[in-house]
Amino acid sequence: xxxxxxxxxxxxxxxxxxxxxxxxxxxxxxxxxxAGGICGSDLHYYLDGGFGVVRVKEAMILGHEVAGTVExxxxxVTKVKxxxxxxxxxxRPCGKCEFCQAGEQQHCLDMWFYGSxxxxxHSQGAFRERIVAGEFQCEPVGDSVSIGEAACCEPLSVAxxxxxQPGSLTGxxxxxxxxxxxxxxxxxxARYAGxxxxxxxxxxxxxxxxxxxxxxxxxxxxxxxxxxxxxxxTARKGYFDVAIECxxxxxxxxxxxxxxxxRGALVQVGVTGEVPVPIDAVVGKEIxxxxxxxxxREYALAARxxxxxxxxxxxxxxxxxxxxxxxxxxxxxxxxxxxxxxxLTF
Length: 346
Hints:
Layout: E1 2-10, E2 13-20, E3 28-37, H1 40-48, E4 50-51, E5 54-55, E6 60-61, E7 65-73, E8 85-88, E9 91-92, H2 98-101, E10 112-113, E11 130-134, E12 138-140, H3 147-150, H4 153-164, E13 173-177, H5 181-192, E14 197-202, H6 205-213, E15 218-221, H7 231-234, E16 240-245, H8 252-256, E17 260-268, H9 279-284, E18 288-291, H10 298-307, E19 317-322, H11 326-333, E20 341-345
Parallel strand pairs: 13-14, 13-16, 14-15, 16-17, 17-18, 19-20
Antiparallel strand pairs: 1-2, 1-6, 3-7, 3-11, 3-20, 4-5, 7-8, 8-12, 9-10
Helix pairs in contact: 4-5, 4-10
């Protein structure tokens, strides 16, 4: 059996092709994909052929934010049945290495993650009409939310992992820098985690309007002075207990530190290269610095929160196009001023 898929050959060389559907094992399921969101990493692959030292070296199916409907199940599958609507966890850790054994599967030494060129042969992605997946990857989402909403489980998992890094947010003042898709979901996750106040920043008013829809209590357009340098944020050694940095832009950390209270926490989510960090401020204020990468156990929680309507992801979905218009969808996703999350339907 073959299925249509979204295959990248090199930068801006994206094709819709037929690819084989794998044979289904006893602990696997066949899923008909219904929707998939274009992530920042997908966009980097399409626009630049990769990011950093990671480059596309062979044909690779893109996509890792997907959900669909189970069509068939293997003989030993008990978690789902044909007809169930599921979100598919794109992480496939080995389960055997030291990190998996310690419950830190996001750091697996032999991770296969949908649509990734970090290893060769590349890990093929899930922008295809049908895919065979492991039973363990399936999280049922019920019938009360759309498949498009269910496809937001992966980025919401990233956000949930990030807000868990510094400990309890109950009653805390939280700053979220960057109100793109991940930043917007971090806002929602922080409010779910008990943050009393969430202030969101961005360069674009349209993104800040979405931030308010996702639960931000206030917004700051940092393209306009004074931004985070405002007296209310810097007086008495800082205003925020926690800052979650989602842009990856080089100068943001320097602008955030004056607004953080002593013994506050800075969680870095946005990825970038080398950036200057005012170490004297980190030391003088005893700032705790956390990195946050991917997720593991948070995926099941994300699926439940979306399924039960406890986090509404609909505001971040700004455009939906069919697979046949994938090139147009990727071009739209590149327009940061106009789009938040662009999804493909299958």
